[in-house]
């Protein structure tokens, strides 16, 4: 099953905004399962086979450079979404090629992917981006992670992802649940650590009548459901939620959210929770440095530290309120219209 994440939503929002401002936008992506049902205000091109997410990614990776080579002159600007898994070679074929940095996997590639693919992914992530002179980054951390802080001649900017402006006016409260919202990918998202922490703290959560709302879907859902059922954990799985109204209800009523990722691109759910005045318990990975002043970090990979911090937040309403208020103030100027306009301004400045 194909499940778009925060990075895909960001691209969609930017493309919609450009189209609304009279730009002729073509969105080139893999021919993922269900692509025929995609509806948008911009034009879409789906490249490759569509039997499964894996065949889609593999065929897209092979066909992409040839497509850009053959068609690059048809476009005024080419924006490539940086990925360890493919390279369009747009910087070779087009003078206005922009690379958008959304994730830095780093050495986690060797833990996540088998040899020899991990070597290709690692060197592709480490070297390919250097051929570009125009870059858009989701956070200040990514500029340093990719070494662009040392490239004085490159034109670069930081543009955060955004949230719906309606979130700030949505009535909030507190019900007895802790929220995880995102893809159910156990290793990347650190869900094995979260579920182990819940298991260790089961007595506390049951005593306080707190449960965990798991919103999202992904390849590890069945495994996580079995683990929860086997250990009789206070967890409810709600699956994929596409309705903005339903998602708003989950965010606005939670005690706090949790994102225990081992690696991430940005962590859009942190910003979404903040827009509802909710703090997030986050792993202490560098990519989350932009959110440290309104979130509570725990030691990456430590279920014990995660449990201690969950108990602390669950037991301290004033701390939740203080962090949530700070987060909402931070998110206030990061609606999708605002950040999409920043992207438009960057595109216009390179002509």
CATH class of the largest domain: Alpha Beta
Q: Which sequence of SSEs, written as H and E, runs from N to C?
A: HEEHEHEHHEHEEHHHEHEHEHEEHHH
Mean pLDDT: 95
Any idea of the CATH topology of the largest domain? Rossmann fold
In the CATH hierarchy, the architecture of the largest domain is 3-Layer(aba) Sandwich
Helix amount, in percent? 40-55%
Keywords:
351 residues; Rossmann fold; globular; three-stranded parallel beta sheet; 2 domains; alpha/beta; single chain; four-stranded parallel beta sheet; 15% strand; 43% helix
Summarize the structure in words:
This protein has 351 residues and is an alpha/beta fold. The chain has two domains: 6-162 and 335-349, Glycogen Phosphorylase B (Rossmann fold, 3-Layer(aba) Sandwich), CATH 3.40.50.2000; 166-331, Rossmann fold (3-Layer(aba) Sandwich), CATH 3.40.50.2000. It has helices at residues 6-20, 53-71, 90-93, 108-112, 117-127, 140-145, 186-189, 191-200, 202-207, 221-230, 244-253, 268-275, 303-315, 317-331, 336-349, and strands at 26-30, 43-47, 78-81, 97-101, 134-137, 155-158, 177-181, 211-215, 235-239, 257-259, 280-283, 296-298. The chain has a four-stranded parallel sheet. The two termini are 39 Å apart. The mean pLDDT is 95.
